[in-house]
Amino acid sequence: MPSFMKDLSIRRRSRHSVKTAETRTSSGNTSGTEATSDDPPPSKSSSTLGSIFDRQSPPTTLSSQKSRSSSYLPGLNSNGNGNKTPPPVPLGSRPRVPSTQGSRYSLVGMPSQSNESVPRQAPATSPLSPRVTSVSDGSWVHQKVLLISGECADLQRPIDGTMTVYHHQETFPPTQWPVCDSHFKALVYLQPGPNRLRFDFTSPKLSSSNGQMQVHSSCMNINFLPLISSPPLQLCILIARDSPETFDAVPERIRKEGNGLETAIRKFRMAAYLWQAFTAEQMYRNGFGRRCYRYEEEWQPGSLSWKDVESGHMRNEAKIHVIRLKQTLKEVRDLDLAQQYGPANRKGDLFGIASEAVRAYFGPRPGQRQYVSCMFLDAHWDKKVGTVRAHAALGGGDDSIKLAIFGSHCLQSYPSHVEEVVPAFTDCTRTDTDYVANDCNEGGSNWEAANIGIGAHLHETGHLLGCPHQESGVMLRDYVRLNRTFTCREPYSTRTKLQGLRLCEPKDECAWHRLDTLRFRVHPCFQLPTDQPMNPDASLQVWTVDNGTVLITAATGIAWIELFPEGDDECYHWIEYLDPTNPSGSPRQITLTEQTIREKLPENKRKRKLKLKVFSCGGGEHEVADFSRLASKEGKIKLPDGRAGFRSSKLGFSQMDGSQPTQVVLGSCQKPGRLLLSIRVYHGQSLDGMEFSYEDGGSDLFGKRGGSPGGSEFVLDTRRGEMLLGFYLRAGVWVDGVQILTSTGRRSAVFGNAMGGSGHTLIPPRGYSIAGVYGSSGPWVDGFGLIITR
């Protein structure tokens, strides 16, 4: 008797099912064998026997490693003993039969998928069944399209074949993926909640004695939890005011799939889901779980499967915003705007055009930052000039709009549906430059053009998310091998003039740099519901203290420090403090010396001028232009009362015309000491100066008396012992605004431009107090820092 039938008798069958079973038993068995008590009732469907809601989960045989993707959802994954448990059965639902069967099977022949009344056979286990190694059974993920990889058959005797993915309750059409040398990669479409997936492996080299194709199957459970509490990455297509709404494509492509706006939307959407699947897998490999950004989605005719397009099936898929520009086609295709055209003088203007259009479309208010990745549909290959018009690859933005832009000149090579992903990345058709561009001479065939288009746009989206250029990975030009992430075998490359890899392993694939994944880990778009709300963080500061020691403080914890010896444009050396599973456990204060920092560098770089960039777990960033100068005696002063004072790192660039150093030591550190009564701030749309007034009628001026006449006064309540605690500054190149913080928790208004620059909180570390302020002043204050003392 099969093992999964042992507990069959505990199921309470309805009167109708009993009658049906009795009727079928009396009428005989069509196969010539009599029904016995060990046989399952014919009225029971296979979906009941293999339900993911069984009270006993089948043994996990699909992963060779423990999943880290569900570590932040322990309450949803395990019981007190650490064992995975399925979701609870809702009240009022039909009882389920416990299942003790394994999750890998071998079938001879495949039952019809269209006839739901035909029960699937109870298969036997097979060592040739697919084994998913990239994700564990029962894991939680947060993206709709999941990238998986694994093995089939015997790795000692590798064979090729095909793996078919059957999705949960057949809510998405089955998809087929090649198996190369017993390895496979596939994209799986997930429904919100638990998903029961089946993988069928077949190969013409494996046949049964009766000549039928053998099917070796395995199943696994994946839980999909959509994220709606983090800001989405918006996807936009920009079209000129009088655009024909078409993109470049060869005539054959136009006949087969068209080159209109609807086709562009499908291709851009599919490319975006590839970005997401790739990024989530990279985050997992770097130890941060399967976290990723999300897209804004809407209920619309599905396009992730070609069958959805034919049938008009509705799905919740990524929304592609179509924004019409106020510029004409002639204006956006002006050669003077083309980034790749050498003589062009306005190569960055397309970014401004896109930014203006996106800002008008989304209308962000202060504090409502938008993250937007755009494609210019009207990009056009001009063969006569030898450049792509209406195209620029740029990423960046300001506090309200983070933006990436790219052209559509490679769009014809993109896949439109999940079923086209492997064909798109293995299509060796040569690029016909009579109709389409060979971008940077690295897109000589269709699959290479897909790499360039999808990958370079992802590179610019990386800039949008805060990533600079790196020594390797996507933020260099690693995307020229993006295809290896989604395929196991690589075709001939016109770029390298070599035959591609026979087997693409993880070490051969495209990747995000480690520093990119660290940035993503603390980025608001990558936050999970279980994460503490730590962004934005203005508390990160660097302080000079005794004996050449430097303190770094951040209320949310210090994540990592990047080291830049003079001559290094990209970061090659860094120190990590971030706990991948528990950022709140990262240190809130660390102590550095110049010796310990320089020991982290190679011998030939230790004597160079050293720049530091410090990052907090809350997304804060602080730059120290010259660490040696900060840690040296220049950062130490002698106060009038004899105590030692220490300068913090300075905000602002101190580079304005006529900028001069300025400094004020507060009365509490003077001889005799004076009680601070009030602070008068002089400002307009930036900080001009501050005047500190004392009980003896005297005052000290930092900066100058400018801006609004009389300035704005903030009076301390000295009767309650209120003292100056610190400042909150808005600063960039200069100081835009300042807010006064006191020991009683009071805050003044932000004097100056409350939205200018970025926010920074200056409060001395524990055991220290404010002794004064220093910086520089030109037309207004363009440098500001604290002097602290014990």
Automatic annotation (TrEMBL):
Protein name per UniProt: Jacalin-type lectin domain-containing protein
Top-level lineage group: Eukaryota
GO cellular component terms, semicolon-separated: cytoplasm
Listed PROSITE patterns: JACALIN_LECTIN
Source organism (scientific name): Friedmanniomyces endolithicus
InterPro entries reported for this sequence: Jacalin-like_lectin_dom (IPR001229), Jacalin-like_lectin_dom_sf (IPR036404), Metalloproteinase_M10B (IPR053002), Unchr_Zn-peptidase-like (IPR021917)
Composition skew (Polar residues), residue ranges: 23-35, 111-135
Region called Disordered, residue ranges: 1-135
